[in-house]
Amino acid sequence: MSPHDDHPALNRLPPWVKAKLSSKAVETIVKVHDWVETECIPAEPIMKAQLVENRWKTPQLMKDLRKKAKSNGLFNLFLPKHFGDLSPGLTNLEYSCCAEIMGRCYWAAQTMNCHAPETGNIELLAKYCNEEQKKKWLQPLLDGDGCSAYSMTEPDRATSDATNIACRITREGDTLIINGRKLYGNALWNEDLAFYILMACSDPDNPNQWKRHSTVIVPANSPGLTMKRNLTIMGYDHAPEGHGEYVYDNVRIPAANIILGEGRAFEIAQGRLGPGRIHHCMRLIGQTERAYELALIRCIDQRKKPRGKLIGQFDSNIERIASMRLRLDSMRLVVLNAADVMDTLGNKAGRYAIAQSKILVPEMAANIIDECMQLYGGQGLTQHTALPEMWTYARFVRIADGPDAVHRHQVGRDQLKTAEGFRNRHEAYQRRYQELCEQWGVPYETF
């Protein structure tokens, strides 16, 4: 029996998950919990106050916390085992337990260098870059010196189908020239942003549509790259990282900045997405647990007694609390299962479980947070609580990493491929039924 069995960091985990956690993983999960609870959540108002002074500058508090987390061994926890000594050696399942706790504070993961898009970008660079590129672009991210962004979405194209990406790369000798427009990708206004990983069209006439695009590294200070404005998400600017609207106007970069090779962007994109979606979902669960806690507190608030009863004494609210608890627990099981499938069978085999998480969790989280806001009444729509920001993030994740409609379509198509096998099975039932009718002298009926 672990000395941490009763620790709050573990008390929502099902027994089958606890049985798969190494002793080192348990220690790490507990450390992450204590870090978030003591260093992050209480400091949320301080972070907001420092951002008032300069919306697009990383607050000193964040810089100090990152240094402290790094010195405490709480940095780059997401790194898989193939990173060698840099990796803490956590499985997807073990790291998922950490990610849920990080989600309790919107920016807690950033203090540990475990935030989006950094985790996906670091894995992409590590997996596909050559040694020179790793030294120049990857190592600073691992060290926490600067940050990066991923640039894929476009305003003029339906880039949920990435074959539509039109931002153009043309080549002149050893130089690449980029022209086009992009949406999202962290704000260029933050001086800590070092570079963008850009997906663009380099060979539009290639008969194979999956080989028309390349992935390149674009330094943030490249002449011709301008940020027209910050994109708000449901009214929130998400400073100091934010989301930009960009114009690439004859941006020139070295051809040496191509990752893996020309025409291999889709291969890279597919290799980047799996684990990141799980991280998003687990952080969402942590956030939703915190929203649920706020709802419970509201239910027993002695100052709030409509018609002389506590909010939690109304039958409808008791049922609401029960429903939220059941949905939260089911969300966690879905994502933990996906993480475990990835560990045991690999990312490709876990495609369905990953899609299941990506589809179900953001929508369910937004619904639960909406119920929590309802319990707070008018106050639940204001900055008096973090609930509106939580709801916005959950709604955003339904679009991030691809609209959930795309994932539903893929799951549906995969399921329809199984229909023939089920029809054969049910026809066998019918044949056996006919045999039994003859055996028992019962009239045979067709259906």
Task: Write up what this structure looks like.
Residues 32-145 form the Acyl-CoA dehydrogenase/oxidase N-terminal domain. This is Acyl-CoA dehydrogenase family member 10. InterPro entries: Acyl-CoA_dehydrogenase, Acyl-CoA_Oxase/DH_mid-dom, Acyl-CoA_Oxase/DH_mid-dom_sf, AcylCo_DH-like_C, AcylCo_DH/oxidase_C, AcylCoA_DH/ox_N, AcylCoA_DH/ox_N_sf, AcylCoA_DH/oxidase_NM_dom_sf. It comes from Cryomyces minteri. The protein has 447 residues and is α+β, with helices and mostly antiparallel strands. The chain folds into four domains: 15-115, Butyryl-Coa Dehydrogenase, subunit A, domain 1 (Orthogonal Bundle), CATH 1.10.540; 147-259, Butyryl-CoA Dehydrogenase, subunit A, domain 2; 274-415, Butyryl-CoA Dehydrogenase, subunit A, domain 3 (Up-down Bundle), CATH 1.20.140; 417-447. 49% of the residues lie in helices and 12% in strands. The strands form two sheets. The chain has a four-stranded antiparallel β-sheet with strand order 2-3-7-6, with no helix packed on it. The chain has a three-stranded mixed β-sheet with strand order 1-4-5. Helix 7 runs antiparallel to helix 9 (265-299).
Please outline the major beta sheet.
Answer: 4 strands, antiparallel
What is the CATH topology of the largest domain? Butyryl-CoA Dehydrogenase, subunit A, domain 3
Q: Total number of β-strand segments?
A: 7
Cross-sheet strand order for the largest sheet: 2-3-7-6
Rg over CA atoms, rounded to whole Å, is: 25 Å
Overall pLDDT score: 94
Helical content stands at 40-55%
Q: What's the end-to-end separation, in Å?
A: 57 Å
Domain Acyl-CoA oxidase/dehydrogenase middle: 149-251
Organism: Cryomyces minteri
Family: Belongs to the acyl-CoA dehydrogenase family.
GO cellular component, one term: cytoplasm
